[in-house]
């Protein structure tokens, strides 16, 4: 009996061991299968994301290359593509993009799980406010265009009226779309969303290219061989005349008015392109919000930087008005004086800006703030645009330096031209370093000093109308800026206003590159016009983008 019992006991132990072994193996295989399934699912998701990125990028490349071909062809009369063909292409793009933005807005409003996360760094309120302001100016420009082209309707194509109408509708829809959805991290319909955002980006870049081309042709001037006067040089209308005349008397005023609004429309397209790109990068992104800092705009304790910056801005605008009036007068003596004043003003501005950025970089060396960690599409785009846009100004400056040095730098104008170009190169390098360093620093933590204020309770009973902060034991919070914070804010405010000045002058028609003939004489006019008209739009955008970046550095300092 004992032997039988022992036998069954051993058999039971053996069966239990076999069962445990089987269950262990089976559980292991199940876990491996789960891991394989999870890995496979992650791989499929990664492949799907890469395919959607590739598809949306292909859409962008094709639209942009086709658009560049049409823009280039519409410039010259000897090519059988005119501005009407380009505008038809732009109308189609704008309608498709507007339809997609409306679809996106309706879809995300109905689907609760379409947008689960928001990127708090993307589309800050001041950037969206700037977009609204630029969009408003663009709408006014379109209204002026419509009123102007109505006068040519009897002898010109109706497409010229249809385009500003469609563009105005596009600006309204896009501004509303970006105001609401600039922070979205879309989780549903990711492929469609990526393609739609790339279409939006392409459309805005095409509108930017068309506007830059039109504005550059309008502003391009060439000095005749006698050197006595300057005149506009429009390569699309060599004779300077047209058989189509306006039917009302306001056409000349309206045309001049909407050309002055072109800079705002150009910046609007670039702002919208940047915001669309950030949205594209955020599609499918899971955002961690715990590192976000709430930033507030305050000018308290900041005085010297804004004051000096305003003085520079007012003085620069005054010299700019003198420059425009004297250059347009056509008298060589006045033109040379205007150029000299313009060069001196720019020399003073970039010199002070360079000194300020050196001081700011020195403060960063003493700063104990940590550098930001983690990926941020907005910050990466800001840095990329800052460096990329500065190449336009670098190009013009170095071409000017070579031309002036090669010709001997004779005369005060050429010496000042050389000095401005060299100082601008230095200022661009220093400002890029200062802004990039500021964008990569964590925001300052405010020092809050608490002071206990005890008051006489009998007096409080007699003066019940006093503020509740004067009650016994109440704490009053006073926020003070350290000297490093104050210095950085002063520098940022000064640089911001100076960059606004350096944006205004070229954006609204200052073209010393053409008024001073050394570049056109050294490189020949065709090559020099290409260098200036390609590099200057990027230089103008660099100044506006620097304003936005400096404002962000101001907030985090």
UniProtKB/TrEMBL annotation:
It is found in: Cell membrane. GO terms for cellular component: plasma membrane. Its main location: membrane. It is a multi-pass membrane protein. It holds the Pfam family Otopetrin. Belongs to the otopetrin family. The gene is LOC121845414. GO terms for molecular function: proton channel activity. Keywords: Cell membrane, Hydrogen ion transport, Ion channel, Ion transport, Membrane, Transmembrane, Transmembrane helix, Transport. This is Otopetrin 2. The chain crosses the membrane at residues 6-24, 53-72, 84-104, 125-141, 161-180, 192-211, 259-280, 301-323, 343-364, 385-409, 415-436, 491-510, 522-542.
